[in-house]
């Protein structure tokens, strides 16, 4: 006996295909009552084609897109790793380290092919990069202003002697 959907060879007493899960014969012909009541996974027509909506074990069809609509290739998702490393070295270390962590998580999700997680971690890495650059820029600006203020006070106090 063979499965009407996938052609997998089955034992003579099989009720379901072990490969695709489709029912290979009705429960009425075997004399057993289904524990699911009236629910069954029978074929939809005489050709043996499986009713995909009724088979919970069927694999997704090839026509269904893996990625959500509007997404490109997973390789298109940037990870911002280099920029976060530079932000860590030159601007704001705590935000840069957090950005590096999310950049690495983006790379891991890209490797797995997980579009949504990669995009979410990429967005977080970009946000941490921007905030780190702004905070680092403000630190540099305030340090420069402090240096100018201290130098001005020192020059002014030397002139009073």
How would you characterize the overall build of this protein?
There is one protein chain. With 161 residues, the chain is mostly helical. The chain contains 4 helices and no strands. The protein is rod-shaped. The relative contact order is 0.09.
List the defining traits of the structure above.
rod-shaped; 161 residues; 49% helix; mainly alpha
- Assembly context of the chains: single chain
- Give the count of helical stretches: 4
Distance between the termini: 109 Å
Helix content percent band: 40-55%
* Unreliable segments of 5+ consecutive residues: 26-44
Structural classification: mainly alpha
Please tell me what the overall shape is. rod-shaped
Round the mean pLDDT to the nearest integer and report it.
Answer: 76
What about the largest sheet?
none
Q: What proportion strand? A: under 5%
- N-to-C order of helices and strands: HHHH
Summarize the entry for a quick read.
The protein has 161 residues and is an all-alpha fold.
SSE inventory with pairings:
Layout: H1 27-30, H2 81-90, H3 93-112, H4 115-159
Helix pairs in contact: 2-3, 2-4, 3-4
């Amino acid at each position: 006996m063979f499965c009407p959907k996938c052609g997998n060879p089955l034992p003579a007493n099989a009720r379901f295909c072990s490969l695709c899960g489709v029912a290979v014969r009705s429960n009425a012909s075997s004399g057993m009552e289904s524990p699911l009541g009236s629910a069954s996974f029978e074929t939809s027509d005489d050709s043996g084609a499986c009713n995909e909506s009724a088979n919970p074990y069927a694999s997704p069809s090839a026509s269904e897109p893996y990625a959500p609509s509007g997404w490109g290739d997973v390789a298109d998702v940037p990870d911002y790793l280099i920029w976060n490393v530079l932000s860590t070295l030159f601007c704001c270390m705590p935000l840069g380290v957090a950005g590096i962590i999310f950049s690495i998580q983006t790379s891991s999700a890209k490797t797995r092919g997980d579009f949504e997680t990669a995009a979410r971690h990429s967005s977080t890495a970009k946000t941490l990069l921007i905030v780190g650059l702004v905070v680092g820029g403000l630190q540099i600006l305030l340090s420069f202003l402090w240096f100018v203020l201290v130098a001005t006070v020192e020059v002014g106090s030397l002139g009073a002697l």
